[in-house]
Design brief:
Blueprint: E1 4-15, E2 18-29, E3 37-47, E4 52-63, E5 79-90
Antiparallel strand pairs: 1-2, 2-3, 3-4, 4-5
């Protein structure tokens, strides 16, 4: 039984050789489990040249009521995750 609404928005702002990216998302679960989710991420990309680019970002996600007690009923515990990443791309 699935009954939920999902929304997602993303935006990019460029300033010189830098691009800033923001992502926001959410899921509103109206089912009996009520597993609401939220997501946010921020990244920056820097272009050193046409062939070399570096990037870094951080993202956070949370989900409500993921734990179950022995009767299979949500126990009110939440789950969250934070991720950090980065790298460099060189085109040949």
């Amino acid at each position: 039984d699935m009954d939920f609404q999902t929304a997602f928005v993303s935006g990019t702002y460029s300033m010189g050789k830098n691009d800033f990216v923001l992502n926001l998302g959410m899921t509103d679960d109206d089912s009996a489990l009520d597993l609401d989710r939220e997501y946010v991420a921020l990244a920056v990309k820097h272009k050193f040249s046409k062939r070399v680019m570096a990037f870094a970002g951080v993202g956070y996600s949370s989900q409500d009521d993921v734990g179950m007690n022995s009767d299979g009923i949500p126990d009110g515990s939440d789950l969250s995750y934070t991720g950090v990443g980065g790298g460099m791309r060189v085109s040949f």
